[in-house]
Amino acid sequence: MQKFTKQELLDIYNQPLLELVFKAATVHREHHNPREVQMSSLLSIKTGGCSEDCGYCPQAARYHTDVEPEKLMSVASVLEQAKNAKANGSSRLCMGAAWREVRDNKDFDNVIEMVQGVNDLDMEVCCTLGMMNEDQAKRLKNAGLFAYNHNLDTSADYYDDVISTREYEDRLNTIENARKAGISVCSGGIIGMGEAVEDRIGLLMSYMEMETPPESIPINALVAVEGTPMAEQKPIEQWEMIRMVATTRIAFPKSVVRLSAGRTKMNMEGQALCFMAGASSIFAGDKLLTTPNPEFNEDKEMFNILGLVAKAPFAEGEQPETKPDTINEERKIKEAARAVKLAEARKNIPADFQPRKVTSVD
Ligand code: SAM
Ligand code: DTB
Ligand code: SF4
């Protein structure tokens, strides 16, 4: 892969728009089938109440947004949503949790079951759960996780203007932990947060410096949500999205470039130029995590008009095997043993036994 300097990428980004689109389209055609676009659906499995202070995020507990905190979804409802996404043409499900980091607890045990279940539906499974260590990454991989999303969001220089509760270095470590576990890496950023063009290129340089760049790079336009510190940010022009997509395509010819948040503010012509310039994936379905996204039907119509087709799952890597999870298996054995013990104990309760009525619990 060609290593570009920051100045070279800046020059690429700033050249006349149609030149840029043409060059990016040429690179795209050398490495990808330009008619194929991956459809990935997002599902917020744990919404809101997050301890972090990411300035763009409606799920941070400290900001007064309309997002109501919810506990972790059940495995059954996640699988129902996954089937619906698959029926609508999505080949990937990305499950997002409003967590600072993964913790080794019952919720994570349930996420493992979700990963196993969605992989068994022959969909690519992606998770975005915040920071994770190497053992947690290995456990997810063992369950059948295909990809892990963890965004650097912006350049190392601008990062501190956006988030103070965790470091750029922490994010790089999580990405490295996913990589070490053999999980495909999805990592990108957001434009329109008040950053300079140098910061957009700075974000790309962080990936350029990696031994292996992400297999998938989501480019989001800020969704400015009321109640967040970025609520008043002026929306970016779609030309900027096209420039960012095209520059990312030229910088990382083999990666999937995902045209992510912000499509509701773009028209079909703008999105068409993004596909032309190398976007090879979208988030599909009427909701991102907490904010709106174009409906499946709208995207179907757009695909028909533009002559695009949905990409099949595992076109870019083998399906991981779902292996038994020892922690969950042991827990289930213990639970079964406890149930047997309880049933035994209940046998000794006299038939006329009346439990005391509890009227209040402090
Ligand atoms: N809590 C986990 C984390 O921060 O890694 C996972 C979920 S978090 C919502 C995933 C990503 O969504 C963020 O890194 C950010 O890039 C993106 N995101 C969140 N809010 C956004 C917004 N308002 N506009 C655009 N992208 C946003
Ligand atoms: C990514 O880069 N964008 C997605 C996904 N990865 C997790 C999230 C976008 C969230 C937009 C705001 C919301 O809906 O809450
Ligand atoms: Fe929490 Fe993730 Fe939102 Fe940051 S981006 S506040 S970590 S949910």
Question: What key attributes describe this structure?
Answer:
alpha/beta; TIM Barrel; binds S-adenosylmethionine; binds 6-(5-methyl-2-OXO-imidazolidin-4-yl)-hexanoic acid; binds iron/sulfur cluster
Descriptive report:
The structure is a single chain. This protein has one domain (6-322): Alpha-Beta Barrel (TIM Barrel), CATH 3.20.20.70. 40% of the residues lie in helices and 13% in strands. It has helices spanning 6-14, 17-31, 75-87, 106-119, 134-143, 156-159, 168-180, 197-208, 238-251, 268-276, 296-306, 326-347, and strands spanning 36-46, 92-97, 124-128, 147-149, 184-186, 189-191, 216-221, 256-259, 279-283, 309-310. Strands 1, 2, 3, 4, 5, 6, 7, 8, 9 and 10 form a ten-stranded parallel sheet that branches. Helix 2 (17-31) crosses helix 9 (238-251), helix 2 crosses helix 10 (268-276) and helix 3 runs parallel beside helix 4 (106-119). The radius of gyration is 22 Å and the shape is elongated. The protein starts with 5 loop residues before the first helix and ends in a 15-residue tail after the last helix. The structure holds S-adenosylmethionine, 6-(5-methyl-2-OXO-imidazolidin-4-yl)-hexanoic acid and iron/sulfur cluster. Iron/sulfur cluster (SF4) binds at residues 50, 52, 54, 57, 59-60, 98, 100, 130.
